[in-house]
Amino acid sequence: MMRFRYLVQDPQGARRRGTLEAGDARQARQLLREQGLLIIAVRAVRLQWNSRLRPVRLGATQLAIITRQLATLLRASMPLSDALLAVASQSEDRQASKLMGAVNEQIAQGRTLADALGHYPQAFPAVYRATVAAAERSGHLSSVFERLADHGEREQSLRQKVQLAMVYPLILFLVSLLVVGFLLGYVVPDVVQAFARDQAQLPYATLLLIALSEFTGHFGLLIIMTVLCCVVAVRWALRKPARRRRWDALALRIPLWGEFIRASNAARFVATLATLGRSGVPLVEAMRIGAVVTSNLALRERLIRAAEELAEGSSLASSLTRCAALPPLTLHMIASGERAGEVNTMLERAADLQEKQLSSRISLLVSLCEPAMLLLMGAIVLFIVLAILLPILNLNQLVT
């Protein structure tokens, strides 16, 4: 429910002011007329928490759940305002509930749903708002919300796969680093202390191990602080678009990793383009929005140039081919769809193909990283064991 402030005139001619609660402005006026009052002005009261909602972010999972609920309610022929209020009341997250209530308030003031969502760009991305605007123009809001929910769920699944591919090798590397650091800092010094008195007769492996152990003990904390400072400095430097662009272009040239970045961004772009095209968004606008969702700035600039070529009259397949941002098989499927007049259908098939290829690349990357880390750890442990055992074997030979 919303709160309205009113100014009315009663049958005796006296003016009265007050507030009431109603679902929208029309219902508020109806309630006042039923009391025999002459309406002079009715204005919605802007809620205090509405101004605090602008920085609110909705997670991909939470946005997909809200979208799915709206699609279900609208499919059941429930009015949009009632559907928004129902989703707000069902949401377990307080900020999300207030957000949906604020969107309903914007609609009650006469704005379209796309305009209402535009007041909260951090909660509803550009792809979401553009799709809703196209759905309002076509009048197929419920089906488009279902398509948006499917798109959000696919995006979340794709994001989780990419995060898994990045996090798993990183965890293995950090654990290996911690184990080696613990061995060099605490275990090795006690073991090799007995051999440190006569270093001239020690094997080179043992001397190197002692040097590494002493270096870790004296400078280990300094190394950790230096690495952290470098990470912070790199993140700060990449905030500037020019440096970020050069960094992203360099990442695309790294073997295996560059192909993985290209595949993940291509999957996200094609899936977004398919969703927007099927929802009735013009192709040029869909290209520009799809380019924005790509995380790599070098690929984003190429796709924006392709959208400009498309706006100048070039075909979709030729503009995407010249930008060299998508795999050849995807470009071939898009060209076939253009010739057959089924671009949206072929984009959906290309999106499914890209997601399957990305899943296979992620599996390959994870399967390669795991044995590589195990081999690296095995080599380090073997070096430590040999460096400790070689002096002991030499002592046994001298005794015999």
TrEMBL record:
Main location class: membrane
Domain Type II secretion system protein GspF: 67-189, 269-391
Topology in membrane: Multi-pass membrane protein
Keyword field: Calcium, Cell inner membrane, Cell membrane, Membrane, Metal-binding, Protein transport, Transmembrane, Transmembrane helix, Transport
Subcellular location: Cell inner membrane
Any Pfam family hit: T2SSF
InterPro entries hit by this protein: GspF/PilC (IPR003004), T2SS_GspF (IPR011850), T2SS_GspF/T4SS_PilC_CS (IPR001992), T2SS_GspF_dom (IPR018076), T2SS_GspF_sf (IPR042094)
Stretches that traverse the bilayer: 164-188, 208-238, 364-393
Gene3D superfamilies attached to this UniProt entry: Type II secretion system (T2SS), domain F
Stated family: Belongs to the GSP F family.
Known role: Component of the type II secretion system inner membrane complex required for the energy-dependent secretion of extracellular factors such as proteases and toxins from the periplasm.
Protein name: General secretion pathway protein F
Species in which this protein is naturally found: Pseudomonas machongensis
